[in-house]
């Protein structure tokens, strides 16, 4: 039996995660404990459930309630994911839901879900494949759409895990997970504090057996299809923000700087597009 709650206005505090809290407030919604995030669309919600995230509630539009519930049931049944049980499902009419910010971008049901703690770097890397692991590091990538697109490419092209600096956009931001099509729940990932990364990040990876490849243009830059990269046992591909790019210290401490060969007159690609090409060349596609 569904726990359906029909509402006639948006004033209920139960709707705060959907109506009144921004991404930062959601992140801190539970005090010192991991907070909340919003998952959008039955497919994204199902992937979050399958990855072990628990829903606090759902919000659905009355006129498409049957469709969204059917889509969600189908996804959960197909992937043997546990049902929603008595999770509150708030139902509102079209006029009310149109008042939500970003309404015209909605892709069906919304769910407020509890975050889970992230492991530290040592524990995170210990969970990855022991043979020939390939990881990505996102340094100060602040655009949520780029973060989501990078995750989607990583899932498709054989990247075993992702490390996200704390000054990057959060992979669980609504726009990130929407662009990623829920692959933020599929690819293993963790955070690293931005200050820790800036002062010791590359050295930490070296200490844990990884060689690092910074995507940057320098005098000693090698192509992403350089044969020596394929011979590296443990490789971390480091991607930086658009505009400023990677920090000079990151580049200087890395074992390689790598580039994508391009036509004359063009010196760079959007970071999400660049990541897809690098992952295609350097990822573990045979393991997918």
Distance between the termini: 38 Å
Please trace the helix and strand order, writing H or E for each element.
EHHEHEHEHEHEHEHEHEEHEHEH
Tell me the helix content: 25-40%
Instruction: Please give the CATH architecture of the largest domain.
Output: 3-Layer(aba) Sandwich
- Tell the overall outline: elongated
Number of domains: 2
Describe this structure in words.
Pfam families: SpoU_methylase. Residues 135-279 form the tRNA/rRNA methyltransferase SpoU type domain. Its EC number is 2.1.1.-. This is RNA methyltransferase, TrmH family. Keywords: Methyltransferase, Transferase. The protein has 288 residues and is of the alpha/beta class. It has two domains: 4-114, Ribosomal protein L30/S12 (60s Ribosomal Protein L30, Chain: A, 2-Layer Sandwich); 121-287, Alpha/beta knot (3-Layer(aba) Sandwich). Helix content is 34%, strand content 19%. The protein has helices at residues 16-19, 23-27, 42-50, 65-78, 94-97, 121-126, 144-156, 174-179, 194-207, 227-230, 248-253, 271-282; strands at residues 4-6, 36-40, 55-61, 89-92, 110-114, 134-139, 161-165, 189-192, 211-215, 222-223, 235-240, 256-259. A seven-stranded parallel β-sheet has the order 8-7-6-11-9-12-10. It has a five-stranded mixed β-sheet with strand order 1-4-3-5-2. Strand 3, helix 4 and strand 4 (89-92) form a beta-alpha-beta unit. Helix 3 (42-50) runs parallel beside helix 4 and helix 7 packs parallel to helix 12.
């Amino acid at each position: 039996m569904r726990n359906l709650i029909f509402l006639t206005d948006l004033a209920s505090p139960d709707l705060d995660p959907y109506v009144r809290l921004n991404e930062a407030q959601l992140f801190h919604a539970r005090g010192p404990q991991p907070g909340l995030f919003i998952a959008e669309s039955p497919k994204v919600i199902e992937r979050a459930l399958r990855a072990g995230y628990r829903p606090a509630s759902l919000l659905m539009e009355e006129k498409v309630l049957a469709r969204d519930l059917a889509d969600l049931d189908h996804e959960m049944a197909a992937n043997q994911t546990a049902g929603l049980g008595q999770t509150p499902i708030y139902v509102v009419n079209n006029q009310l839901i149109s008042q939500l910010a970003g309404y015209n971008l909605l892709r069906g049901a919304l769910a407020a879900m509890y975050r889970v703690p992230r492991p530290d770097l040592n524990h995170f890397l210990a969970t990855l494949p022991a043979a020939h692991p390939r990881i990505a590091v996102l340094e100060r990538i602040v655009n949520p759409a780029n973060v989501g697109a990078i995750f989607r490419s990583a899932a498709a092209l054989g990247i075993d895990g992702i490390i996200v600096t704390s000054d990057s956009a959060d992979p669980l931001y609504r726009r990130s997970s929407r662009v990623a099509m829920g692959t933020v729940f599929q690819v293993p990932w963790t955070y690293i504090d931005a200050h820790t990364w800036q002062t010791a990040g590359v050295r930490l990876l070296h200490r844990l057996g990884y060689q690092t490849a910074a995507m940057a243009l320098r005098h000693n830059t090698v192509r992403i299809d350089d044969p020596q990269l394929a011979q590296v046992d443990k490789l971390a591909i480091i991607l930086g923000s658009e505009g400023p790019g990677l920090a000079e210290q990151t580049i200087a401490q890395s074992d390689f700087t790598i580039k994508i060969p391009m036509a004359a007159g063009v010196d760079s690609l959007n970071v999400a597009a660049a990541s897809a090409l690098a992952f295609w060349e350097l990822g573990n596609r045979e393991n997918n």
